[in-house]
Amino acid sequence: MYQFLIEKGKDYEEATSGWKVAGDKIDETVAEFVHNQFVSKYNLTTSFRDLSVRDRTKLLMECEKAKITFSDEDEIDNAAIISIIDYCGEKKVSYNLEYKDFATKISTIISEAIKYIGNVFAKANMSLIDLNAIIMVGGSSKLLPLREVINKEFEEKRNIKIVYPDKPQWSVAEGAAVIDSVDCQYELNQDISVVMSDGTVYPIIHKGSKIPFQGNPVTFGTVNDATSANFIIVDDKENILDRITMPSKGFIGEYFEISGEIGNNLIAKISVVGNRMMKSVGEKQIEVNQLSYYCDISEIEDYKFEIKE
User: Fold this and answer.
1) Alpha carbon of residue 196 to chain centroid
2) Between 112 and 222, residue with greater pLDDT
3) Confidence (pLDDT) at 302
4) 290 and 182 in contact (C-beta within 8 Å)?
5) Which residue among 1, 209, 215, 247 has the highest number of C-beta atoms inside a 10 angstrom radius?
6) Which pLDDT belongs to residue 308?
7) pLDDT attached to residue 306
8) Predicted local confidence at residue 1, as pLDDT
9) Are 72 and 44 in contact (CB under 8 A)?
10) Which of 62, 16, 54, 55 shows the shortest CA–CA distance to 39?
11) Residue 243 CA from chain centroid, whole number
């Protein structure tokens, strides 16, 4: 999820927030439910966890079809028929999946996903009252249970416009193609810093750094004889991005080098190398994604994004 604004020809991501759960998780959740119905109906002895790759793949494909079917409001009054030939030793198995059961099984996933809208506003230090519209893109945005919650929580309760493009999956590809057509170079829209012992921060990667970025190492030392050195990585709104802990002895001549880089995949890599008397004693690296960026789109003169009533 992204919080963004367009200002003076530049498209700014104010903050991003995401979850490593998507359509595949929904398919798996529904598949486990359907498999358990097969177990009861056909007296199967194989658990969902122990399914063969072949049987699991066939079941997931059928459940994905059901998910797509239930993305059409005209279809929710009819059960989606899950039918599989040669499954767990049975010649044929079938189950009529009702929409209400489908919606119930994925309700927890939907609830967790909704939380990330609040997360992205917290990261941007903004309030929902600052929001003009929510644009729903990507395949999962077609899920009716998700749309029902989004419409209720944001459109009905807060009068925030919800935009559903006709082709939500295509909209993602179209936007990327438009940006690429003007050879837009992404720039970081936030500092990435390490917290010092006195609470101040020292930037490792500065806002405005052009991507790809390769920074020079920055050297830090310890101030006591602690057995570990803890590095807290934050953004410019003091949101903690991650932590790195390195072994430390507090010896004279011991120091740590921190460096950062961002590749074309827009994921930052922060590395810490421990040194004693010029000898490396270990290295740790973290990856930081869901960072915010901006790019100049002022050259796009003939492209308009319209919000349809």
Assistant:
1) 29
2) 112
3) 53
4) no
5) 209
6) 47
7) 52
8) 47
9) no
10) 55
11) 19
